[in-house]
Amino acid sequence: MNPITQELNLQTQPLDVPTAILQRRSIKTFKPDPISPEQLKQLVELTVAAPSSYNIQDWRIILVQDKAQKTALSEAAWNQKQVLEAPVTFVFAADAKGGEKDLTPIYEQGLQSGAWAENVVNYFKTAIPQHQTSLGNKRREYAIKDAMIAATHLVLAAESLGLSTCFMNGWIEDKVKAVIGATDDPDLAIAVLVPVGYAAEPRLNPGRLPFSYNIFVDRVGNPYQV
Predict the structure, then answer these.
(1) Rounded to 5 degrees, what angle do the CA atoms 105, 187, 134 make?
(2) CA separation (Å) from 102 to 107, 108, 111, 187?
(3) Is there a contact between 189 and 137 (Cβ–Cβ < 8 Å)?
(4) Contact 30, 195 (CB under 8 A)
(5) 61 forms bridges with which residues in the sheet?
(6) Cβ distance 223 to 211 under 8 Å?
(7) pLDDT by residue (tens digit) across 130-166?
(8) Residues of 78-104 as b/e, b for ≥16 C-beta within 10 angstroms?
(9) What is the pLDDT of residues 82-108, one digit of tens each?
(10) Do 129 and 139 meet the contact criterion of CB atoms below 8 Å apart?
(11) pTM of the predicted model, to two decimals?
């Protein structure tokens, strides 16, 4: 990062949530400027602050920064250049059996923080396995939902801190899993890839449809009117 860019970043105040939401655009061309370790840590902290079902935190997030890894990941994503250009790409994976793993650390944290009472933890110890069983072949879908919520937190956090992102849904799952070393884990699903960095292009708002087109009240076909 050059001194001018660094000075501008130091002077930038984080955006409020509504502004970050309205300002965010999908950026596909990035500057080579690195993200500082401190800022990257802040992004990770804000990302994992996302909610998840029963707080099981069944996402698995891989930060791809190594040049060779970025090249391999780009190849797994139809050679899209934003993975090569951005200093880091967050790979959001989802563990379909996350709720069936040892959740003791999560229970202990909830108790220590005072967020959960003992009876709540005891309820979760029964309810979570029952919920996982009831999901059947929907386990993967539910885990991906949790990962996508976390990815949305990342995107808005990055925008608020002067960084840009791009949700990427164009990739070959088996190849992405090979890049991150998860080929032998059939329960791990890839949810989304998110390159993060400093935008090298302007992006205008392409607009949104009127509310009446796809927002409804109580039932489909009853458009929301303002």
Answers:
(1) 75
(2) 10, 12, 16, 16
(3) no
(4) yes
(5) 92
(6) yes
(7) 999 999 999 999 999 999 999 999 999 999 999 999 9
(8) eebebbbbbbbbbbbbbbbebbbeebe
(9) 999 999 999 999 999 999 999 999 999
(10) no
(11) 0.92
Q: What burial class does residue 165 get, using C-beta atoms within 10 Å of its C-beta: 0-12 exposed, 13-18 middle, 19+ buried? A: buried
Give the tokens for residue 23: 């300002």
Say which amino acid occupies 128: I
DSSP 123-183: HHHHHHHHHHHHHGGGHHHHHHHHHHHHHHHHHHHHHHTT-EE--B--S-HHHHHHHTT-T
Q: Which residue has the tokens 């960095």?
A: 197
User: CA dihedral in degrees (129, 135, 137, 140; nearest 10)?
Assistant: -80
